[in-house]
Sequence to fold (501 residues):
Amino acid sequence: MLAALPVAGFSTGPRDRLRLARVPADPFTLGVASGDPSPDGAVIWTRLAPNPLADDGFGGMPAQPVDVDWEVAADERFSRVEQRGTITATPESAHSVHVELAGLRPAADYFYRFRAAGYLSTAGRTRTAPDPGSLTPMTMCVASCSNYEQGWFTAYRRLAEEHPDLVVHLGDYHYEYAGRDGGVRRHVGPETATLANYRQRYAQYKTDSDLQAAHAAAPWLVVFDDHELANNWAGDVPDTPQPAFGVRRAAALRAYYENMPLRRSAMPTGAGMQLYRRVPWGDLATFHMLDTRQYRTDQACGDRTRTDCVERRDPSATMTGAEQERWLLNGFQQSRARWDVLGQQVFFSQMDLTPGPARTYNPDAWDGYTANRDRIVAGIVNSPVRNAVMLTGDIHSHWAAEVHQRFADPASPVVATELVTTSISSGGDGSDVAADTAAVLSENPHIRYFSGRRGYVRARVTAGEIRADFRIVPVVSRPGGQVHTGATFGIPDRAPVLHSL
Fold:
């Protein structure tokens, strides 16, 4: 491939030609991304990988540092460049780049790109958050669960076409399973267990043009769920016994950081990383991004859906861990936002999965940690929180629910709402409401909507209302599916109920 033409403002001297000789092909095969916006900046990201599927996880890069130039402009043509600089990508970080921008204007669109070894990346759009005090409306899209083998990432493309101000991704960005025949596409490599495996798997997903479009469209807020490491892991406990799980966990978290637009504060140390954080969007919304995997106790009931086992009500069972719970409750006490939004992974509302008098629950969701959930609900009730909204992924289907103060008492006050996004592709094409699902819904009157199709949630957030559209892509078994709205709900200010629109 020929080198890109020189770009105004980038160095093209002898040192640049030397770098060009060390990189064998275009290194920007994984696209660009941005995330964690602030009023004066955001993180911009890329990773150099001329051979992205290389088995060693290094993406075909030489074992040498490479300088990467970056620039940020106020327009798509980069005629008004406002900032530029150079950062060194190293083999120790798989030649990933995280630039933390500062000094930009609040509530403004910016465009960014990178250059290395004579090659120019595609451009991405990011947006800074508004200043404190602002109630400027915003549009966010919420996504989760993209399995490369089970479908095309068409929903990411349609999400990009919404031109959101922010994307909230709630986990299962990739799946760890070994490549298997018979799917829509095929994973490269074995089940991910080593750092090289995880780096290769991220690279395969990031070569998808629909995913690249979604990253380039807006800044992302990201948290992981289980498949970024292994199915249904809980703290230090794997779902199935395996040697050296701590080593595998450390590799997975390191690869996650390398491949996501996260700040340095999230850089892992060993087998842990600081992922939970608060991201304000003026005074309109505060996003409390939760980590429901690193600190949780092992799932109750043997981690199998079953009748109402007593373990799930154990006061010591925790999804968040004690420190994160204190952090969250303290955030409620300090709230000044119109909307407090919890970006988290698994179904928060109670859900009885069996029609009739018998009751069964999913112990991997909050139903397996009821005391922890009750304390969070009480924290909302006994705080200045004005409007609480849970954003949820994981379950591969759309749901809308109302959160009661006491789940066992459907007449108790509704204190929050829950918007559950379906998967991008996990589960294949899916289906509309089946008879067995309809029967389950009749057991759960606080649940107002269900769809088993693929897609995402689009929400318009204003001072007076959140308007949530459940966006549906009926077909992912072949590319090019269109999107439509399956249902729309309004959540009024100071009235945490779902109004069908």
Q: What stands out?
A: Confidence is low (pLDDT under 50) at residues 1-21. The longest strand covers residues 447-461. DSSP finds eight helices and 24 strands in the chain. The two ends are 52 Å apart (CA to CA).
